[in-house]
Amino acid sequence: MPQLFFVFCILALSFVVYGILGKAVCIRYRMRPVLPEVFCIGFFLYFALFQVLAEFMIFTRQKLHVLGMVWLAILVLLLLLSSCMISKEKKRQSPAAATSVRPAKAVRLLMALMTAAVICECITAVLMQRNIGWDFAYYIGNMTTSVETDTMYLYDGNSGLLRETIELRYALSSFYMNTAWISRLTGISALLLQKYMAGVQCVLLANAIVYSFAMEVFRRDRKKSAVLVTLTILLTLFWDVYDTAGQFLMLRGYEAKAYCASVVLPMILYLLYRIWKNERDMGTWAELFLAAFASVAVSMSSIVIVPVLITIMLLAHLLVEKRRDMVLIGRMAVCLLPNICYLTVYFFYAIDWLVVEV
Asked: Are 23 and 82 in contact, with CB atoms under 8 Å apart?
């Protein structure tokens, strides 16, 4: 029980970090998204930056605790800089801009119902995470072995034996090493962190994106957005079909695949919808690049799906508009660049041109 309490404390602290980082990005690009989207932006920024450091450490076969200490120092510095930006922005704002109007009673009621539905979904997701198949054993094995040996992807997650080479099929994503360094630092079981912290976090982020998407579609109508999120949760809970993203979220929310289906792809689709409406919004393009950059860090399943989705949506936009816009194509190419780099590395690995020996 004490470890579970600290797990949820770390979960709360994670969202504080995402909120500060996300707010700093919004100030930098003069964006005014709804609060749930701010957390999503911070989440993607966190993993985009963590991936850069983690992959360098993995490829150079550094110790896990070294990754944890260096990243912790960088994260503290980022939070300090972000907090300074937020503080300066608050000072620039007039007192009238800082005040907010109290929502109507109907809005408060619907928001309360939506919040209750989200909490129920989080509890249900934790209770339903009963999948203990090969994937579960391997991913948890990778993390616990990394924590015990103070290494990263050098030991096999199933057998615990030292590998001859690093398997880039898994090592190109730093998602599980994020849990591993927290486990190493705090002494909390990686199994508990991944199942409860990562699982609940996935549900919260998924609903944050649905709410942000709804607010965009319904033009900031909080009543309609709250109703849509609540209905989405009810469908997820009671439509018990395994081959849906919702059920994957409920059963295996601790896995990177669930993050791909419920967080990464919906966020990419949401941003593409905004670009379709207003392709000149540089803030949305910055968000799209950030989400694409972090997509592989969050889930290796994104390595092909994300660039394909971006390409199809933007080419469809050009076809509908019946024009050839080289500026839009150039921006699309920039957003595709991170995944293309990952695909190139993975291709060389797949044909045995790139071998990282242990």
From this structure: yes
